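Hi all, posting the design record for the shared folder.

TITLE: backbone redesign
STEP: 1 of 1
STRUCTURE INPUT:
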């Protein structure tokens, strides 16, 4: 197409790869399915981090969080790089970004034209007379929306929502009808959280429909690329915050009339680090040399990648360092601090009823099988999963002699990647503060922990900034 297309980016929070078009028949997602029918459903798309701010920093900078210093959840990068929207604006695009930022930094000036509700302007026929990029964040599926006091929490924290209609959707999904992953106990509490999340997805889907309807009514749908994705997995244990499949394997739906075949499916490996260069490629903007990703659409489309990479670092007050490499079949995990348990305490995470249920059952000795794999006091230094046979990543093959070659190959690929980017997770956070890379938030987190009961000190959260003594 000769005319440069408009671009719409829709991001759903904490939804995981859950939608009817991905085979989840217990959720109602007719509008996401409608978008998939208009374009391409990507089956191998991955976030770089299983938590909000690091994941979003990747999307907007085209660089890995552990390379630029946005890898710790709740940190502040003092000298952030340009965003891809800077490149789009330089190429003549109008950028409207009215909702969530949360990049672990404050963007430098000139990254957007406005923060106005662009969907209303689209309905009114008042969009700019030049190519435009528009963003919308849909927060109704956020982890906190599964909490019993979700409405009160949202009011107290001032959580943003876009056209949610009601504080929370009505309860519709029958907990008896939802699938429970094998790594969670199959109890009424867990089923209730999953059912609530399904209801929240239905509301998110309604909001996606409003965006698509407004675009159709505007007459601009024929020259607009629409991208839908999720930042990371559901706010459940071993999903959000953990870089297994459920934490990083995400939905990606892209429509581009006249370019992408409607109803197509792609098994191309895509990482969220590829989003920024792809938006530049679609817009005809130069792709900065410091981008780590490569375009998967547009004039600058690159060859498909062979691996995706991900990580986990400090989650609020709870320190850890985990790195992941994945190809089409194998998912390799390296735990740099095996003495830190999987399920260390985290103040925010403890609000989730499913998390409380896990702790209750574990204390009573009532967790069995794969539902118990998250609770040991230590974790292995390496993990390896065959995701074709084991998509939930519950059968660790790292110790199997027949998989030694795979383990060595994947470990070498991860070593190559970490050396290439000079992984900042290898440096104590105090060193990054001393170098002026990130703001000093050490005492802020120590103050959070000081009044807590002893059980919150187990799992080494107080070692968040002094991790050397945790090395085994």
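Okay, here is what came back for every position:
SEQUENCE:
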């Amino acid at each position: 197409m000769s005319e440069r297309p408009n671009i719409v980016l829709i991001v759903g929070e904490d939804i995981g790869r859950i939608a009817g078009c991905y085979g989840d028949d217990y959720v109602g997602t007719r509008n996401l399915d409608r978008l998939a029918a208009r374009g391409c459903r990507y089956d191998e798309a991955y976030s770089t981090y299983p938590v909000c701010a690091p994941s979003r920093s990747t999307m907007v900078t085209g660089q890995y969080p552990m390379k630029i210093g946005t890898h710790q959840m709740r940190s502040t990068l003092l000298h952030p790089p340009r965003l891809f929207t800077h490149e789009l604006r330089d190429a003549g695009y109008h950028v409207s970004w009215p909702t969530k930022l949360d990049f672990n930094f404050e963007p430098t000036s000139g990254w957007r034209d406005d923060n106005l509700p662009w969907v209303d302007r689209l309905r009114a026929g008042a969009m700019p007379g030049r190519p435009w990029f528009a963003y919308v964040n849909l927060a109704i599926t956020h982890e906190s929306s599964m909490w019993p006091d979700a409405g009160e929490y949202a009011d107290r924290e001032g959580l943003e929502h876009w056209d949610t209609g009601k504080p929370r959707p009505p309860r519709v999904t029958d907990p008896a009808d939802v699938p429970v992953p094998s790594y969670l106990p199959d109890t009424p509490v867990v089923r209730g959280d999953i059912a609530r999340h399904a209801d929240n997805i239905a509301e998110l889907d309604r909001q996606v429909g409003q965006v698509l309807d407004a675009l159709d009514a505007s007459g601009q749908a024929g020259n607009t690329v629409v991208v839908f994705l999720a930042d990371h997995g559901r706010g459940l244990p071993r999903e959000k915050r953990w870089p297994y499949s459920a934490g990083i394997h995400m939905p990606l739906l892209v429509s581009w009339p006249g370019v992408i075949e409607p109803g197509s499916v792609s098994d191309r490996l895509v990482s969220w680090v590829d989003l920024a260069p792809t938006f530049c490629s679609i817009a005809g903007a130069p792709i900065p040399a410091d981008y780590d990703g490569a375009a998967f659409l547009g004039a600058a489309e690159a060859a498909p990648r062979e691996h995706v990479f991900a990580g986990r670092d400090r989650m609020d007050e709870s320190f850890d360092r985990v790195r992941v490499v994945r190809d089409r079949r194998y998912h390799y995990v390296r735990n740099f601090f095996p003495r830190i348990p999987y399920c260390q305490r985290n103040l925010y995470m403890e609000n989730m009823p499913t998390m409380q249920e896990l702790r209750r059952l574990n204390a009573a000795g009532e967790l069995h099988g794969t539902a118990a794999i998250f609770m040991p006091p230590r974790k292995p230094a390496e993990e390896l999963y065959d995701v074709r046979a084991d998509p939930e990543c519950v059968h660790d093959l790292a110790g199997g002699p027949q998989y030694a070659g795979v383990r060595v190959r994947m470990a070498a690929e991860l070593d190559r990647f970490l050396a290439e980017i000079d992984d900042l997770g290898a440096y104590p956070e105090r060193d990054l503060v001393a170098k002026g890379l990130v703001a000093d938030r050490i005492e802020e987190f120590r103050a959070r922990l000081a009044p807590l009961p002893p059980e919150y000190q187990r799992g080494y959260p107080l070692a968040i900034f002094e991790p050397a003594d945790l090395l085994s």
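COMMENT: Residues 188-218 form the longest helix (31 residues).
Let me know if anyone wants the other runs.
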